[in-house]
Design brief:
Blueprint (H helix, E strand, L loop, with lengths): L5 E10 L2 E11 L4 E5 L6 H8 L7 E6 L2 E2 L7 E4 L11 H11 L4 H14 L15 H13 L5 E5 L7 H18 L2 E5 L3 H7 L2 E5 L7 E6 L15 H24 L4
Parallel strand pairs: 3-8, 3-9, 6-7, 7-8
Antiparallel strand pairs: 1-2, 1-4, 4-5, 9-10
Bound molecules: adenosine-5'-diphosphate and magnesium ion (MG).
The site of magnesium ion has 3 residues, from helix 1.
Length: 262
């Protein structure tokens, strides 16, 4: 059997005076769409950052396709909640950036970037600057930026948290389309259980911190392709939601008790 795209082996992460996550063991199989949910501050971003190589574990190790991860994860792309568009560059130049940094041939790179502009639905906007774009359009640029370098793994940390509900639904649909076409491994972080279920093959619930651990890993056997507009009223969706929420609810309540002032 081929090794998992991402393996967390007995991972612990401590900050001075605070253990964020402890004894995390988790495999993300190649080609899967996996989401991590848990109360605010439980360590979701911390886990993602360790798999991306942006943060070093205090204990344990991360393996990427069977190889120990040292430093930045070069097999991965990353989409954050705040998009990282450069305000002084156009849509085209922002999308080109990743290929430029890798020293790609400029002509070929520009063609690839134009293909991506089309693919993410930004035809006619190549010469616009980020401040001239809507929130959804900025996300489309960020998507193209992430996918253009063809990473085997895509990390997303609450990428749509700041969008209005309708724009968010459209962006989620776009992500599922890209994922289905390109067969990447996706590790997605969200505090929104409905979003996690609607998008994922698998949902991981983390406990309230400190020393957050995995409460459960749940399979989402809803058929694909999924209709995100209607999926939340599907009886199977409701059933899965109920069983995960039973566990997550406990953790959310614990987290309330521990952070009364929030
Ligand atoms: N660089 C850091 N220094 C100190 N504490 C941190 C740092 N990064 C995260 N933490 C703490 O670790 C815990 C988990 O944070 P985080 O992974 O951002 O949570 P989540 O993404 O689930 O909301 C939080 O209590 C946070 O304050
Ligand atoms: Mg976070």
């Amino acid at each position: 059997m081929s090794p998992p795209a991402i393996r967390f082996k007995d991972i612990t992460k401590s900050f001075p005076g605070y253990t964020a996550v402890e004894a995390i063991n988790l495999d993300v199989s190649s080609g899967r769409f996996l989401s991590v949910v848990g109360p605010s501050g439980c360590g979701k971003s911390t886990l993602l950052n360790m798999a991306a190589g942006l943060m070093t574990p205090s204990g344990g190790s991360v393996e990427i396709f069977g190889e120990p991860l040292n430093g930045i994860n070069r097999k991965a792309g990353y989409m954050f909640q705040q998009d990282a568009l450069l305000p002084w560059k156009t849509v085209l130049d922002n999308i080109l950036l990743g290929l430029e940094l890798r020293g790609a041939d400029p002509k070929a790179a520009e063609q690839t970037a134009r293909d991506w502009i089309h693919r993410v639905g930004l035809d006619g906007f190549a010469d616009r600057y980020p401040h001239q774009l809507s929130g959804g359009m900025r996300k489309r640029v960020a998507m193209a930026q992430t996918w253009i370098t063809d990473p085997a793994i895509v990390f997303m940390d609450e990428p749509f948290g700041a969008l209005d509900v309708h724009t968010r639904l459209r962006m989620e649909g776009e992500i599922l389309g890209l994922w289905a076409e390109t067969k990447k491994t996706v590790m997605f972080v969200t505090h929104d259980l409905e979003e996690a279920i609607a998008l994922s093959d698998e949902v991981v619930v983390l406990s309230a911190g400190p020393a957050s651990h995995i409460v459960g890993v749940y399979q989402v056997d809803l058929e694909r392709p999924r209709n995100l507009i209607d999926i939340k009223t599907d009886p199977r969706f409701t059933e899965i939601y109920g069983s995960i929420w039973r566990d997550l609810r406990e953790e959310v309540l614990k987290s309330y008790e521990r952070n009364e002032k929030v």
